[in-house]
Amino acid sequence: DTEVTQTPKHLVMGMTNKKSLKCEQHMGHRAMYWYKQKAKKPPELMFVYSYEKLSINESVPSRFSPECPNSSLLNLHLHALQPEDSALYLCASSPGLAGGGNEQFFGPGTRLTVL
Amino acid sequence: QKEVEQDPGPLSVPEGAIVSLNCTYSNSAFQYFMWYRQYSRKGPELLMYTYSSGNKEDGRFTAQVDKSSKYISLFIRDSQPSDSATYLCAMALPQPSNNDMRFGAGTRLTVKP
User: Fold this and answer.
1) Which of A4, A36, A103, A112 to mutate to test the interface with B (most CBs of B within 10 A)?
2) Are B60 and B78 a contacting pair, CB within 8 Å?
3) Peptide bond into B94 cis (omega under 30)
4) B-proximal residues of A, 67-96, CB under 8 Å
5) I want to staple B107 with a disulfide (CB 3.0 to 4.6 A). Which of A70, A84, B9, B55 is the partner?
6) What digits encode the pLDDT tens for the residues A57-68?
7) What is the mean pLDDT of residues A59-78?
8) What is d(CA B84, CA A21) in angstroms, rounded to the nearest whole number?
9) What are phi and psi of B104, to 5 degrees?
């Protein structure tokens, strides 16, 4: 299995809702990432988990809360979002092995619309 | 100056042409270099991955890294309409900072039949 899967594909939520995005990989990768991508822009790094520990948090607002329940799963909990948070949210994973490669494999993304 | 510079295009070529895509960067410490292809409304797909300098070929795609000039390239031979997408260069520092990847702006390519 060489895929990163993400659910849901599309999500529409109000500013008072709480929702979660899910990401899963079964490649044995030990690093997992959340990115935000606006139209016609490159992905922006939000969070990195390395060996299930949060290693990078790029000053993301607290209305985004990541969680890594195990080495295969990554969640992004959303609460009290703003319309400007509407974007494509991408999950990625990489081997994360010491001395190994760091090539990142992306999932298809969740297209989020905040009303 | 941005850390990674990439001409956003758009770039339009006829089918069968050789396409050259380029990025320059300012941080000489980058060691890992990648090219991603992203179709509209999809996630980026890893095309090429190179460590340090040199060339790498995979089918119709060739990636080149010139660390002395801080310049990387992706060549697409015999381009096809299915190659129409946005191409993103990306690069990362050596370990332990290699998880923090820097992207170029992406070049939008259209290959016309």
Assistant:
1) A103
2) yes
3) no
4) 88, 90, 94, 96
5) B9
6) 888 999 999 999
7) 95
8) 29
9) -80, 175
